[in-house]
Amino acid sequence: MRSSPPTAAPRPVYRWLPYLFAAGAIFWLVNLAQTGALAASPVGRGQLEQTLVNTGLTQNASALLVIYFVMVLMFEATAAGLHGAAFYGLRGMRWWGWVVAVIVAGAWSLVLIGIPVFVFLLQRGTRQAYGVH
């Protein structure tokens, strides 16, 4: 397999980009740890189960909590992994890093935070800097 040709040093405007995704990875890893601690704690699970019962859930609150924790933990682990992949790919000026970054920024665009990053990533200069033509 051929290695990619060496590229020039990234312009200063692109140097901050990987660290934005590293911050996102840290954010999701902290959320993952908090959710994991809540799931592992009998007191935390008991409080959530009691809250569900208080809202009127009469059937098997623990099964609902298991489904909730599995879905949330999988989502947070996936988000942290994608942010980490974007960080390493962008830091190495790889095309696949740009692709992962576009996917992550597109997902963040659903909550409006990622729109400026999404627009920046789709600019011609940014695409060309990462070898995407």
Share of helix, binned: over 70%
The chain-level mean pLDDT equals 85
Unreliable stretches covering 5 or more consecutive residues: none
The helix tally amounts to 7
Largest sheet: none
Shape: elongated
**Secondary structure: number of strands:** 0
- Gyration radius (Cα, Å) is 20 Å
* Derived structural class: mainly alpha
Number of domains: 1
Order of helices and strands: HHHHHHH
- Portion of residues in beta strands equals under 5%
Report the span from N to C terminus: 21 Å
Describe the structure.
The chain has 133 residues and is an all-alpha fold. It has one domain. It is built from 7 helices and no strands. It starts with 11 loop residues before the first helix and ends with a helix.
In short:
Helices cover 75% and strands 0% of the residues. It is mainly alpha-helical and 133 residues long.
Furnish the topology, listing elements before pairings.
Elements: H1 12-15, H2 17-40, H3 42-54, H4 61-91, H5 95-108, H6 115-122, H7 124-129
Characteristics of this structure?
single chain; elongated; mainly alpha; 75% helix; 133 residues
